[in-house]
Amino acid sequence: MKHVRITFIYLLIVQFAFSQQKLNVIYIYADDLGNGDVSYNGATKLHTPNIDQLASQGIIFTNGHTTSATCTPSRYALMTGRYPWRQEGTGILPGDAALIIPANKTTLPLVFQQAGYQTGIVGKWHLGLGAVVKKNWNATIKPGPNEVGFNFSFIFPATADRVPTVFIENGNVVGLDLKDPIKVSYKEKIGDDPTGKEHPELLKMHTDPIQGHDQTIVNNIGRIGYMTGGKTARWTDEELTFTFLEKAKQFMEGNKNKPFFLYYAATEPHVPRMPATMFKGKSGLGFRGDAILQLDWMVGEIVSKLKALGIEKNTMIIFSSDNGPVLNDGYIDGSITELNGHTPLGPLRGGKSSIFEGGNRVPFIVSWPGTISHQVSPALVSQIDLLASFASYFKFKIPNGDAIDSENHMNALLGKTKQGRTTYIEHAGTLAIVSGDWKYIVPAKGNAMTYATNIETGNATIPQLYNLKDDIGEKNNLANQYPDKVAALELLLKQIKEKNN
Ligand code: NG6
Ligand code: CA
After folding, report:
1. pTM of the predicted model, to two decimals?
2. Which atom of ligand 1 is nearest the CA belonging to 271?
3. Tens digits of per-residue pLDDT, 264-300?
4. Domains plus CATH for the chain?
5. Which residues line ligand 1 (CB under 6 A)?
């Protein structure tokens, strides 16, 4: 009897110790997922039950943003808390680019690391690797994620459509046979591997003839860039998500008793969309829809794993996307022909690469079961603010000059207030400033439509002013009616641009 009581007390203590465990944070980042691509936010042609579940138990932010309308700059802002347009060389990077995250500055994972967290990244990196472009892929590649705040990394270098199509774990290419070394070039063809251009008959998915993606063929898919060697290390696209998910599960399992931060950078629904067999054809909307179902399934798997580890209530999941949606982004994959009335943008205008809201207003959910309850928040929140928000949560003082654009909005992220940012800068080919309900787009000379992907860039040589409260679709340009507003926003933008500390 006495024994039983002692065991009981012991169990109580163990449980208490666990419930005292610090919060874990998982940041799930979709790639090119639109505001209207999720059923919690109005999609009816496809269903995302696992993402919806996060939304229905957590906070749905209707005014959630990435900084930019493409991948690299958005990820740069997420990691550094700096607007990417302040920094040259933060545009979409080739697969052989050098690391663009400074190793001596505060980064988002460093904020967690200094608070005693284990930090891991699994998935798409796209922020460059190594010190130089001409790097040796056959030895440990440094600096990379492990040098800017991650204890563990299992990534692919750039995008799924860019070589080298290999996984890199803590700096080393996985499964590499050193007798078959990897070489990469974005300048000229190297080695004997067939290219999509010379051998279109080898492709299992046609490329759009005006959008390239016709260089080295890997897994019967044409890519951007040339590679040779590394045959045993090359990935199979259909397995990408299984591989990342397995690594993420191992990371969670290994750190179930320690606080952890996991950055899960999914590849869906970015091109090439080549989902696993179990998802092919499942959405009825072509491979893009299938890829979104695969993404949703992965989210469900992460939640199940948290439950199985008994840490679900102790883990915050933040779900978002790095930029707005695009249909034909280089491959003929049914994204247009099988769209079936699906509206990836919802009511927004633009899309990937656009300065309109469709470029940077993205799904944004914060779920923390048991601690935050469901609500819909109109607070303007941005990925660039995660750094300062978590720094404040951990009472970490950001060194002067670091993360200068990141603001602490932890109270908005936790649903304690519906007030987020008052001012925000959006970025594509040009800049826009949002202040309250107003958005001003800086005049720009570039094309009105993107090349080939057929998206309105938002570029215009005249000033554009929209009232987002009344006109979320940015249809009525009010610049002529409110010249004072235009002038005030221009001035505010100038002041923010000049800020350097
Ligand atoms: C573009 C690619 C597009 C995609 C994008 C990066 C062409 C014509 N198009 O340059 O396919 O890879 O870069 O997407 O090359 S992002 O989400 O990583 O920013
Ligand atoms: Ca992207």
Report:
1. 0.96
2. 11
3. 999 999 999 999 999 999 999 999 999 999 999 999 9
4. 23-175+242-421 (3.40.720.10), 424-497 (3.30.1120.10)
5. 31-32, 70-71, 92, 126, 159, 161, 211-212, 224, 270-271, 323, 329-330
